[in-house]
């Protein structure tokens, strides 16, 4: 009888192991099925001519740097500036004198180029939506040439084209036409869309300014259409004197407000 009881006990043990699927298991997740795997991280980026270590604003360059810099400078024109947008992650430790590592990285790159500071536009942006591993080397900045003159200014994500008082025929200007020619090529090649907003100073009545601003936006649109941009790629809007970017109390401020703003829309 005792042997029969032992045999039954062994058989019950084997049966329980088979049902529960834990006997001899070397898979911890089967023992704790409620444990959630850690969120996957973005692979480390491919590095170009410059990069930064995680939580550092110390610039590192590769053997590609000299060719990269030479190519950039060859493309510069009299109205060009080098825009450096320093990038940072909100999980990085910031030990710089700046509010974030992005500005520190932009400053490091501008100094390393060895040009007068008037040749640069420095800004920063967050990589908050990117989950790099903490041991990644990262590019840390985006660099591109922008146009800044009395007639055209690329700032932030907008292009500003300025107009004289009461004028709508600014495109008689060669500089503006050449700039729009290049913009048209880009918009066509990349199938992008443009938002064109017309603005004025406050010299006229509300109704007059709305019409004037609309005419300015339309003259830019017509020019781009003549260069092959499709109608569905352009949206125009008139704001008149409702969105000044400087005071209308001075000649300089009013000149800044007489403008058309172009913005490439995200796809």
CATH superfamily of the largest domain: OmpA-like domain
The largest β sheet comes out as: 5 strands, mixed
Per DSSP, the total helix count is 7
- Elements, N to C (H/E): HHEEHEHEEEEEHEHEHE
The count of strands amounts to 11
How many structurally independent domains? Answer: 2
Terminal-residue CA separation? 80 Å
The coarse overall form would be elongated
- What would you say the CATH architecture of the largest domain is? 2-Layer Sandwich
The computed structural class is alpha+beta
Mean pLDDT: 84
The radius of gyration over CA amounts to: 30 Å
CATH class (first level) name of the largest domain: Alpha Beta
Task: Provide the β-strand percentage band.
Answer: 15-25%
Note the topology.
Elements: H1 2-20, H2 28-31, E1 50-53, E2 59-61, H3 65-75, E3 80-88, H4 101-113, E4 120-126, E5 137-138, E6 141-147, E7 152-155, E8 158-162, H5 174-190, E9 193-198, H6 206-226, E10 234-238, H7 251-257, E11 259-265
Parallel strand pairs: 3-4, 9-10
Antiparallel strand pairs: 1-2, 1-5, 3-6, 7-8, 8-11, 9-11
Helix pairs in contact: 5-6
């Amino acid at each position: 009888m005792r042997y029969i009881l032992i045999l039954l006990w062994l058989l019950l043990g084997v049966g329980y192991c088979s049902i529960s699927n834990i006997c001899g298991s070397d898979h911890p997740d089967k023992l704790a099925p409620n444990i959630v795997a850690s969120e996957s991280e973005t692979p480390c980026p491919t590095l170009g001519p410059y990069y930064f270590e995680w939580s550092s604003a110390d610039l590192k360059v590769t053997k590609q740097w000299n060719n990269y810099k030479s190519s950039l400078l060859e493309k510069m024109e009299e109205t060009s500036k080098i825009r450096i947008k320093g990038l940072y992650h909100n999980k990085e430790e910031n030990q710089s004198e700046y509010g974030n590592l992005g500005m520190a990285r932009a400053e490091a790159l501008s100094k390393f180029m060895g040009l007068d500071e008037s040749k640069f536009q420095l800004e920063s942006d967050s990589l908050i939506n990117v989950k790099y591993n903490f041991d990644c080397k990262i590019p840390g900045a985006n660099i591109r040439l922008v146009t800044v003159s009395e007639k055209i200014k690329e700032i932030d994500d907008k292009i500003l084209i300025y107009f004289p008082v009461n004028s709508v025929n600014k495109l008689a200007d060669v500089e503006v036409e050449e700039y729009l020619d290049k913009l048209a090529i880009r918009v066509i090649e990349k199938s992008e869309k443009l938002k064109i907003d017309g603005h004025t100073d406050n010299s006229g009545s509300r109704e007059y300014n709305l019409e004037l601003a609309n005419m300015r936006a339309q003259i830019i649109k017509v020019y781009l259409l003549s260069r092959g941009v499709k109608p569905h790629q352009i949206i125009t809007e008139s704001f008149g004197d409702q969105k000044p970017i400087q005071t209308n109390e001075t000649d300089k401020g009013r000149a800044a407000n007489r403008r058309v703003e172009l913005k490439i829309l995200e796809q």
